[in-house]
Amino acid sequence: MAGLWWELLVLAWKNLWRNRRRTLITLAAMSLTLMLIQVLNNLSMGSYRQMIQSGVRAGSGHLTLNAPGYREQQDIALAFDVTPFWACIEQQPEVQQALPRLYLPGLAQSGYDSRGILLQGIDMTREAGSNPFLKSLSCDHWLRPDVPEDALLGIQLADQLHLKAGNKFVVTLQNSRNELVSELFRVRGVLQTGLQDVDQSLVLVSLERAGLLAALPGKIHELAILLQEQQQVGAVYQQLHEALRDQPGIELLTWQQAMPNLYHAIQLDYASQNAILLIMLVIVVIGIANTLLMSVMERSHEFGLILALGARPFRLVELVVAEALVLGALAAVCGAVLGGLGTWYLWARGIDLRQFISEEIEYGGIVFEPVLRAVWDVPWMAQSALFLVVLSVMASVYPALRAARLTPVAAMRRR
Amino acid sequence: MSGIELQQVSKIYPSGHQQVQALVDLTLSIDDGEFCVLAGPSGSGKTTLLNLIGCLDRATSGTIRLFGQDVATCSARQLADFRLQRIGFVFQSYNLIPVLSAEENVAFPLMLRGVGRDERRRRALELLTVLGLVGLEHRRPADLSGGQQQRVAVARALVGEPSVVLADEPTANLDTGNSVELLEMMHRLNRERGTTFIFSSHDPLVIKQAERVIELQDGRLKADNRRCSAHET
């Protein structure tokens, strides 16, 4: 049986090259579509990865530790002491950095004006190499550990309050005991994140200072855990979930749970992209079906002959399907090679959007790099190539059934 | 023994709003090992009769028995198997598969039977040698002359060692020299292997070589003459 199928594949290969031009055109359409699909997907995956990287570093990390209910209620009293969990988290080899943070809404006042702010208490040493918001800031303007009144401001907030480095301003907020407290800070530096909401409201101070102000000494609202690789989220989540299972007063979230807006923005974009890719594939399938149907119609006489020689009708189905299989496999190989070359170019060189857009790009609440780079999504590339072969075989069903319905005498009358 | 028996066989083809009666109440039997020709002018029903005997078409009425089996009771699949195992065809215009070499064309029915590659090759080369086509086995049909193509078609018809070879005007596209050579070769195979040969032809050369001439006219049996082969005399 396997031997006969091999013979059919050889015959199918020969049949495909009867009309060389038609086969090459169909092959080119299939290969280029596969290439386009693979390159677009890999580029999108690169963008998503960049968005997630940027999002998790500036936001809640790949994994987040919170007090239960903090995400929903945003109650500043829902803080927790991270000390008992440090060792457990930092001993995980996949963990690159763990960033403790406090978030305190309040009011900033300068001599000129006042604005609503989000005061964020951070560990400057840990954040410096990880937080993309701090990327534009030189180390001369970092928060100093021995100067508690140092603060970093979003650029628009600084503009609105007419503040520059060295100027003083007052922050007023309600602490965890519902007391109204005020504190004087001095501008150490100004940040430009590219996110309008953040640039209008962000104030970064030291974690210790924020804790004292909020009457939450030694406590934090969030521990953002950054991993070496994004793909490790599931595995590390399982490990930490298991390890922290018996610890009351904390909950572990993935970035998808902690940043649903970003997650849904990516999901929506991915779904619409897949719909476009599916439409492209359907168009290709119609092309394949057309090629095979023309080939069958042209060879009616020969199919009649094969039937006359004693082939069962199903053998013709096998032959047409074998032709589709060979065509699909050939297109899958060519398309994958082209897709690989395209991906390699976009992985190595990328697309520099600065030629087209002068401003920074914000999407789903995230600023991402203006140079789009592809990633190697090899499993998806293999799946899409295999999918093309399957679609090619599916496209052959109708032409194959047409061939099987031929009768020897009627078919041999056709020329 | 009669391997082929036809009883009151008729075949009607629809042609637009009309019907064309290609065969009318034909009763005939052909014994195993016969070398006979269906003679008659164009439209007399020769090809239709060959198609019915070859299980390529079904009779409108009447009974056709091939080696004791009533073909009307067979499914399309059974008829295909019957053709594959018992019948060899030689067509007027060779009908070789253009993408296959001479050897592959000859071996094609064996491939359909699932015979292994080496065995197929051995048997195909053996026949090509018998038919004087040594050295041409790798050529495709387009690179062979008409006579060579027809001999490849004969080899293909014989490779499965069928009980009956049906040849529809096998010399129609050949010159006299090639026709004589082909007929001699078929006659030899008939004698040596006992294969039944049934030709349709109005070529006097073919009719002269036949041991039995079945004459058809307007779908009816006009004459049925047995004689000693001219080839033997």
Would you kindly provide a written description of the structure presented here, covering whatever features stand out?
The complex is a heterodimer of chains A (415) and B (233). Chain A is α+β, with helices and mostly antiparallel strands and 415 residues long. Helix content of chain A is 53%, strand content 19%. Chain A has two domains: 2-56 and 263-413, no CATH class; 60-258, no CATH class. Chain A has 16 helices and 13 strands. In chain A, strand 2 and strand 3 (114-122) form a beta hairpin. Chain B is α/β, with parallel strands linked by helices. In chain B, strand 4 (61-66) and strand 5 form a beta hairpin. In chain B, helix 3 packs across helix 4, helix 3 (102-113) packs parallel to helix 5 (146-158) and helix 5 packs parallel to helix 6. The model of chain B has no long low-confidence stretch (mean pLDDT 88). Classes of the chains: A alpha+beta (415), B alpha/beta (233). The interface between A and B is medium-sized, with 25 and 30 residues.
Q: How would you briefly describe this protein structure?
A:
The complex is a heterodimer of chains A (415) and B (233). With 415 residues, chain A is an alpha+beta fold.
Secondary structure layout plus pairing:
The complex is a heterodimer of chains A (415) and B (233).
Chain A: H1 2-16, H2 20-58, E1 63-66, H3 70-73, H4 86-90, E2 95-109, E3 114-122, H5 124-128, E4 150-154, H6 155-160, E5 168-174, E6 180-191, H7 196-201, E7 202-206, H8 207-213, E8 222-227, H9 233-243, E9 251-254, H10 255-258, H11 260-298, H12 300-308, H13 313-348, E10 351-352, E11 361-363, E12 366-368, E13 371-372, H14 378-395, H15 397-404, H16 408-413
Chain B: E1 2-15, E2 18-31, E3 35-39, H1 46-53, E4 61-66, E5 69-70, H2 76-86, E6 87-90, H3 102-113, H4 117-130, H5 146-158, E7 164-168, H6 176-193, E8 196-200, H7 204-209, E9 212-217, E10 220-226
Parallel strand pairs in B: 3-8, 3-9, 6-7, 7-8
Antiparallel strand pairs in B: 1-2, 1-4, 4-5, 9-10
